[in-house]
């Protein structure tokens, strides 16, 4: 969430930022409401001052005037309260400001590839996509997934489900033991204010699942509960930076992706993900972002899967992000690059919404922390990359060496 004073004092820069994102946030409406609000506050102050002056007079006329002023004040207070609600809602719809170094672009086509790792595999046979491999090996059941829950659901079976569980355990152990993240197992459903704090509401309400009776929201990513771990808190000196890693199931309606990626397990309403999250001091947040990207890359390297890193342009940045990088694995059967991680520096955008502050020292005033998030990594796309890169001519799939102790097998036959 952007500070209202910042928008007021930098209106043109904010407009340009919104335009660079190909967004349509209502900046002019916000400025109009802000002007009306300041005028109404001044009127209220004047009316309250008049009422105090009238209260000193002991005449029937003064009493009548005092009652009229009281009614006027009450009416204006109600109008101001209504305006505050409208203004607050509009402010929640303004995206974060991209950092000056972020490349300006009009679509994802303007993202910049900054490095790659590993050689793309060469086969002496035609590689097949994961949906064919999965059905032939009887480790993915699309028909029963649809029978149980409808389209964009599937069932992992036998060694397929063990492979997914192995990848999750491997990534949690790697980030916890080697990279210094504290493991968290959070709830998969949260209160509405948690969705607001993490920047998912009100902007993305149509893409979220909601239990109306209990007013709980199913998380689209562990970023949501992890953001709110310290909601309405002041973190004491010497505690930052804080590193969290969490496994969760994730739930998305995927409305914006209707008609895309309908085959296979690339895009579904339910999927698993290991999420990385950081709270840190503002002056080190970009450095921490670079470290987070390296942590995501480390997983790819351990799995010996070719990948590339892209810096996102302004138009492709997430709503809360000031700077982002995507990590993409190569899937030879699908013949495409699959995003397995998107790492973002959100600055103080989320911490303002969730009221998360810290004290640099015991004598200092609280300041807003910077928050960062990234996948470490996202399934099922890692499953896809393993299946398609490690497939063999006889239709079997080799299991990456680092996963073999977790799976208990070397080959899927």
What does it look like?
Helices cover about 40% and strands about 20% of the residues. The model has no long low-confidence stretch (mean pLDDT about 95). The protein is elongated and about 100 Å long. The chain has helices spanning about 5-10, 10-20, 25-55, 60-90, 130-135, 140-150, 160-180, 190-195, 225, 285-300, 350-355, 380-390, 405; strands at about 110-115, 140, 155, 180-185, 190, 210, 215-220, 235, 240-250, 270-280, 305-310, 325-330, 335-345, 355-360, 365-370, 370-380, 395-400, 410. It is of the alpha+beta class and about 425 residues long. The chain has 13 helices and 18 strands. An eight-stranded mixed β-sheet has the order 1-11-12-13-16-10-9-4. A three-stranded antiparallel β-sheet has the order 5-7-6. Helix 3 runs antiparallel to helix 4 (about 60-90). The two termini are about 50 Å apart. A hairpin with an 8-residue loop joins strand 14 and strand 15 (about 365-370).
Low-confidence stretches: none
Radius of gyration: 26 Å
Mean pLDDT: 96
> How many strand segments?
18
- Given the C-alpha coordinates, what overall shape results? elongated
Strand content: 15-25%
Strands of the biggest beta sheet: in what spatial order? Answer: 1-11-12-13-16-10-9-4
The N- and C-terminal alpha carbons lie at a distance of 51 Å
Helix content: 25-40%
Q: Helix count, per DSSP?
A: 13
For the biggest sheet, the summary is:
8 strands, mixed
């Amino acid at each position: 969430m952007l500070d209202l004073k910042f928008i007021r004092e930098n209106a043109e820069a904010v407009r340009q930022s919104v335009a660079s994102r190909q967004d349509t946030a209502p900046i002019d409406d916000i400025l109009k409401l802000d002007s009306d609000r300041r005028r109404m506050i001044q009127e209220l102050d004047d009316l309250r001052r008049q009422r105090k002056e009238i209260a000193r007079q002991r005449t029937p006329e003064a009493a009548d005037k005092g009652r009229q002023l009281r009614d006027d004040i009450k009416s204006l207070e109600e109008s101001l309260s209504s305006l505050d609600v409208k203004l607050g809602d509009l402010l929640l719809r303004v995206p974060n400001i991209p950092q000056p170094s972020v490349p300006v672009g009009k679509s994802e086509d303007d993202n910049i590839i900054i490095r790659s790792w590993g050689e793309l595999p060469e086969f002496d046979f035609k590689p097949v996509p994961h949906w064919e491999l999965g059905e032939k090996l009887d480790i993915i059941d699309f028909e029963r997934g649809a029978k149980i829950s409808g389209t964009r659901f599937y069932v992992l079976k036998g060694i397929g489900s063990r492979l997914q569980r192995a990848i999750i355990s491997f990534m949690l152990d790697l980030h916890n033991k080697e990279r210094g993240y504290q493991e968290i197992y959070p709830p998969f459903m949260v209160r509405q204010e948690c969705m607001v704090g993490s920047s998912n509401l009100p902007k993305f309400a149509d893409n979220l699942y909601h239990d109306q009776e209990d007013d709980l929201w199913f998380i689209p990513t562990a970023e949501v509960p992890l953001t709110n771990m310290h909601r309405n808190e002041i973190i004491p000196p010497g505690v930052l930076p804080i590193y969290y890693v969490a496994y969760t199931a994730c739930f998305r309606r995927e409305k914006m992706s209707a008609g895309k990626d309908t085959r296979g397990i690339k895009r579904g309403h339910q999927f698993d993900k290991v999420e990385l999250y950081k709270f840190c001091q503002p002056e080190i947040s970009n450095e921490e972002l670079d470290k987070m990207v390296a942590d995501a890359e480390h997983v790819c390297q351990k799995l010996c899967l070719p990948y590339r890193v892209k810096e996102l342009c302004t138009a492709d940045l997430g709503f809360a992000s000031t700077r982002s990088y995507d990590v993409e694995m190569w899937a030879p059967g699908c013949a495409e690059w699959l995003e397995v991680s998107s790492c973002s520096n959100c600055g103080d955008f989320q911490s303002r919404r969730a009221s998360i502050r810290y004290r640099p020292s015991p004598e200092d005033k609280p300041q807003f922390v910077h928050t960062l998030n990234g996948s470490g990594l996202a399934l099922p796309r890692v499953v896809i990359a393993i299946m398609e890169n490690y497939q063999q001519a006889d239709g079997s799939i080799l299991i990456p060496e680092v996963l073999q102790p977790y799976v208990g097998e070397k080959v899927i036959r």
